[in-house]
Structure formats: structure tokens, C-alpha cells
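ligand=hypoxanthine
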Amino acid sequence: MAVSYSHENVVEAAEFLKTKISTAPCYGIICGSGLSGLGDKVEEANIVKYSDIPSFPRSTVQGHKGQLVFGKLSGKSVMCMQGRFHPYEGYAAWKIALPIRVMKLLGVKVVIITNAAGGINRTYKVGDFMILKDHISFTGLAGYNPLTGPNDDKFGPRFPAVMPAYDRELRAMFHDTAKDLGFGDITHQGVYCNVAGPSFETVGELNMMLRIGGDAVGMSTAQEVVSAAHCGIKVCCCSLITNECVLDYDATTAPNHEEVLETGKRRADDMQKLITEFLKRL
Ligand code: HPA
């Protein structure tokens, strides 16, 4: 059984994509649940299905398109992933690194990542934005790390630091963009807790996350950030708070996926505005 992609696998995927595009992308975008409409805004779009790209994992989540969109957004050359790969789909962790490494070979310098997340911080409301200043990856700490297996020195070191990927300047720029668009009061900078899912967290688990400094929780992003950090790509990540996490044992409400999707739909336009304006300023 394979334990990672070979360097040749990544090169093959990147070379295949080069034959499909006319301009190399500078920025990568990964769209979270309910937020992939941004990819439809890409101009001069060149769409490549994951299933056509050598070695690329397949997207299994219903409603995720499973394609890369190359083109222009706010005048910038982008490649946008419509559909991402989550631990709960059953992928080996190293598979999640592939799209990021392909981005690296195509020349991407910054990846903008969005996700849907539950609000743990009691000041966060449904519909708020949270810029990630860090993550606590329960999956990573438990051994689900995309860098597990033989290290590919051509991408990065065996023991990389992750924090430099959460670039302070990019975070400040994104926050300023949010303020200028009138979203200042509903935009926070916080710590994202990554869980494997697909079951939602228990009340006890959420209270633990609150106590150790978590502000929001979700089932994606951390593996992508670790992969980006490894190969020297900076990230700018923004969660949409789609639901308020239930921290009370006696509560009668329970989290559900419908609420996540519904909030995503309702706030998708504002998230798109935020990202397109941010791209303009990059
Ligand atoms: N927990 C985990 N993942 C999520 C949540 C949540 O409450 N909301 C959106 N994604």
C-alpha cells in the first residue's frame, strides 16, 4: 500500500495542468462548504475536473463539484478548488497534501482558504467571520498529519514550522478589508480547532476546546495549512461561523448539517465580496 505520492506523481499532475492553462496562477483558493460559488465568478475560466488529473483524489462530498477553476478574479490569476478533501471521507492524510503541492509547482504563493465552522467563543454569532490566526489540530495531534511518511525534501524539511504560514500581514490585510466593507463588527481573529468528523462534537469535547483556547471548530483546513507551511506557501484562512456550538449539557438543541449549509447559502455573497476585495489588494 502506498504511503505517500512520489515526487513524480505531483510533477505529472502539475505538468498535465500546465497543458490546460495559458497563465500560471499566483493565488490558490479553497472553497468551504456552501462557499464554492466563488469559483463561478472566475473570469476567462478554464475548468479541469479532478477525475481527469493524474493522481488527483476524487471528491466524494455531495454538492462539491470536484474541479479546479483557473482564470482571473479581481484581475489576479487564480486557481480555485471547488470541492476539497476531508478526513471523514476516508482519505489517507498524505492525499490532502497533493493539491497544495501541485499549487506550489504551478507557482502559487498564497492560498486563501474558507471553511464552515461552529462558534465556540461565546461572543461569536451565526454569520460572523473568523480569520484564523492559528489552529489546534486534534487530527494532527492524534497522528493524522499530511506529512506523515517519507519526507519529500524537494517540497520542504522533515520538521517544518507551521506558524509562519498564518502570515500576520495577510491576516491584518484581510481584517482591514473586512472593516472597509462594513464587516468590522462581525469579523474576529481566532483559533480554529480541527476535528475529523463526521459526527459533531460532544458537549464535553466542546467545553475542552473552549478551555484550551479554541474559538471555532470544523472538519477541514488544518491539513491544507500544514501542507502549505511545509512547502513555503502562506495562507489566509477565513471561517464562516455557521452555527453556535452547544456548550450546555441540558440544552435541547443539537447541531445539524442543514443549518451549516443554510448559513453558508445566506452568507456566501458577503464571503465572496470579502475575498474578491482582498484579492484586489494583494
Ligand atoms: N462542528 C464541526 N464542524 C463544523 C461545525 C461544527 O459545529 N459547523 C460547521 N462545520
